[in-house]
Amino acid sequence: MSTTQHSIVIVGFGGMGSYHGQLINENSRLKVAGTYDLLEERRSASAEAGYKAYSSLEEVLTDSEVEAILIATPNDVHKEIAIQALRAGKHVICEKPVALSKEEFEDMLAAADEAGRVLMVNQNRRWDEDFLIIREMYNKETIGTLFQLESRVHGANGIPGDWRHLQAQGGGMLLDWGVHLLDQLLFLIDSKVTSVSASLSFILGNEVDDGFEAVLQFENGVKAVVEVGTTNFITLPRWYVKGIEGTAIIEDWSMTGRMVTRNQESEKIEPKPIRAGVGLTKTMAPPSEGATITEALPAPSQLPSGFYDNFAAVIEGTAEPIVKNSEVLRVLNLIEAIFASAGTNQVIKDFDIYAK
Ligand code: NAD
């Protein structure tokens, strides 16, 4: 593997830009050459953190020492910054959501194509441990073929008090968190989405959604339920998945969870009826003793490399991107379908876009 360190400038040195700085400092293939932010106070913060603080985007793009930029600005300016940088001959990492619409992203792709430069989107949650555990279960059929996946993130803090409140800046939870959860599902499930049914929530009275629910049906029979909430004072599990042979749960980011499967060794014993509420039920009684096995979650599957290492290898022409732009485009299509379903209160069926 090459040991060349590629110089990158972080454009937008807010919360995520600073975090990228910390992560890239720990990475051997990329090196932070500096940062650029519109705000003077963020330029000072950058200088305090030990980075060169460029005073304009133009200064970044005309610096021949700079090979790439990483865009971590609010979502509405991703497109214009990316296109300028690509035309200036820089490679680009862009934060998610890459753009506000698929048309915007197509313009960015055309610029990358014309310039012969790499454009990669930071769908970093493909590397999340919880997702990689689910991926292991899905691919290895640890609890039998998975037929239903429920993926949720719940908070109780509302929409953060910044540009995420504003439609013009690409705010709202579907674009913010939804893009991660949908990217994970489309990356995992190698099948066409045949229908989407969704609703957005506006409980907090913002002009953008403070959460959403979407049900996706895939051609291979898998159903996915995706939910983002910012008014959930009690949270539901991060993942709840059902397979033919069992059920699994991942509670939270600490990977608390378990798998419960049918005990193949045990004879089928009818459960005993229980009193449930004021009624009696056998159907909803717990399985008889010994009829199920409870186990720890499997170890997560591994991706071929980390995001920054992969980006470095892609610009050197020695690897395929792990986050492919065709996949990013599919997710943007799906987001548009979710907006359409929520806006019309209809199930969206006629996609021309999900063919692989
Ligand atoms: P933020 O508001 O904390 O920071 C954005 C920064 O960009 C600010 O400092 C602002 O001054 C600067 N800025 C705005 N317009 C600019 C311009 N035209 N040129 C240069 N700088 C400009 O926002 P954030 O939470 O850091 O989010 C930034 C991006 O990162 C968003 O796209 C967001 O969706 C993404 N993000 C990704 C993750 C992830 O896990 N992948 C997590 C958080 C945020």
UniProtKB/TrEMBL annotation:
Residues 8-122 form the Gfo/Idh/MocA-like oxidoreductase N-terminal domain. GO terms for molecular function: nucleotide binding. Residues 133-248 form the GFO/IDH/MocA-like oxidoreductase domain. It comes from the Bacteria. Pfam families: GFO_IDH_MocA, GFO_IDH_MocA_C3. InterPro entries: Gfo/Idh/MocA-like_OxRdtase_N, Gfo/Idh/MocA_oxidoreduct, GFO_IDH_MocA-like_dom, NAD(P)-bd_dom_sf. This is Oxidoreductase. It comes from Paenibacillus albidus.
